From TrEMBL:
Reactions performed catalytically: S-ubiquitinyl-[E2 ubiquitin-conjugating enzyme]-L-cysteine + [acceptor protein]-L-lysine = [E2 ubiquitin-conjugating enzyme]-L-cysteine + N(6)-ubiquitinyl-[acceptor protein]-L-lysine
UniProt function note: E3 ubiquitin-protein ligase which is a component of the N-end rule pathway. Recognizes and binds to proteins bearing specific N-terminal residues that are destabilizing according to the N-end rule, leading to their ubiquitination and subsequent degradation.
EC number: 2.3.2.27
Top EC class, one word: transferase
Organism: Denticeps clupeoides (denticle herring)
Protein name, entry field: Putative E3 ubiquitin-protein ligase UBR7
Source species taxonomy: Eukaryota, Metazoa, Chordata, Craniata, Vertebrata
Gene3D superfamilies (alphabetical): Zinc/RING finger domain, C3HC4 (zinc finger)
Length: 393
């Protein structure tokens, strides 16, 4: 495959296309599960959807002004406004055009109640995140750090502000922040037995699993049966102890949480908690516990389930999934491949510059904007072709 030389080494067109495909898949995961044409308000409190907050219409000033709009309204009703991307939120009804927006009406669905009483808001709706209450990206923060979302409050927190070390392959796990753990203290019981063990660093730089506050009997059992322990991303958990408590059907029929509370397993109640895949299915679903766990018992509530839905929707509407450009490249000679690479790189640079203006002004890029860009590209191409023809004659 032909390649181009740059300051960062050789990059093939295949590499560029694969990178673009990855970015497209990420966008599809977030936006594919939401409707870009119709306001989601008639659907009521949608289980999970992509949301935005408009700083132009509802600027920061207090909890009463916080509001969120659906994907379609961000395009149709708030074009050119300064928007904060909220990623996804659960059980939310579109606020666009209600009393929080003054005289403004929703262009897609005008008949809305004054407020959506069941909506939950946070500082995210004013473009602020984490316990440090800062924007993202933060122009004053020079420390490179990833943002991780709590599955309970759905706030995004810096890894360094979680009160614990972030385990490897964190994208395969779910996290509950320390504040939410303390608001739902029963989760500490589950954390002692099924969560990823907290990781601490020794003075020599070694990493160890921290099983603090475990009684002597539990320590002895753990030492004698460690091969049975579950390893999640290389971190040893304590599924063995959890499975032992599951052994009695009569006890489990009563309340799984109560059985765990009598197991003797404890854990230091500090820092965020990372949970392995499938942890929700291990929560007790008895009548009493359902009032505590609610949405946590619903596997379809997860962001992963929503993203998979978005990807599936895109695949179902996108034909056989094969990239026609990738297929066409196999039939081109070396010179033709180089010409396409140069054309592609020129277009990519111009598109980046074009979109940068929207980012600087905090505007949403609409389909009309993209069509306008490619119309300009076609115009430039025709002018270059005409100039070339004139020169050759």
């Amino acid at each position: 495959m032909a390649a181009t030389e740059g300051d960062e080494g050789t990059v093939s067109l295949v590499d560029v296309l694969e990178e673009d495909e990855e970015l497209e898949n990420e966008a599809s995961a977030v936006l594919g599960g939401s409707d870009a044409e119709k306001c989601s308000y008639p659907e009521g409190y949608v289980k999970r959807q992509a949301l935005y907050a408009c700083n132009t219409c509802t600027p920061a000033g207090g909890e009463a002004e916080a509001a969120g709009v659906c994907l379609a309204c961000s395009y149709k009703c708030h074009e050119g406004h300064e928007l904060f991307e909220l990623y996804t939120k659960r059980n939310f009804r579109c606020d666009c055009g209600n009393s929080k927006f003054g005289a403004m009406e929703c262009k897609l669905f005008a008949e809305k109640e004054k407020v959506n009483a069941e909506n939950l808001y946070s500082h995210n709706f004013f473009g602020l995140y984490c316990t440090c209450n800062r924007p993202y990206p933060d122009p004053e923060d020079q420390v490179p750090d990833e943002m991780i979302q709590c599955v309970v409050c759905e706030d995004w927190l810096h890894g360094r502000h979680l009160g614990c070390s972030v385990p490897e392959n964190v994208e395969l796990q779910e996290m509950v922040c320390e504040l939410c753990m303390k608001k739902a203290p029963f989760l500490w019981t589950y954390a002692a037995c099924i969560a990823v063990s907290p990781v601490t660093k020794e003075s020599k730089g070694e990493v160890k699993n921290d099983h603090e506050h475990v009684d002597e009997k539990s320590k002895g059992e753990e030492a004698s049966t460690s091969p049975k322990d579950l390893k999640v991303n290389g971190v040893t958990g304590c599924k063995r102890s959890y499975q032992d408590t599951e052994a009695s059907p009569s006890q489990m029929a009563e309340c799984r949480l109560k059985v765990l509370q009598t197991s003797g397993r404890t854990r230091e109640e500090s820092g965020a908690v990372f949970w392995p895949c499938g942890w929700r299915s291990k929560l007790c679903s008895c009548t009493s516990c359902k009032t505590k766990t609610a949405f946590l018992l619903d596997e379809s509530d997860t962001v992963l389930a929503y993203e998979n839905k978005g990807k599936t929707t895109e695949q179902e509407g996108g034909g056989d999934g094969r990239d026609p450009l990738m297929s066409a490249l196999n039939n081109l000679n070396h010179v033709q491949q180089l010409e396409i690479i140069h054309e592609y790189n020129d277009m990519k640079t111009e598109l980046k510059d074009y979109l940068q203006r929207f980012a600087e002004e905090g505007k949403v890029v609409t389909p009309e904007d993209i069509r306008h860009f490619f119309e300009q590209q076609q115009g430039r191409k025709r002018r270059r072709a005409d100039a070339s023809q004139y020169y050759c004659s």
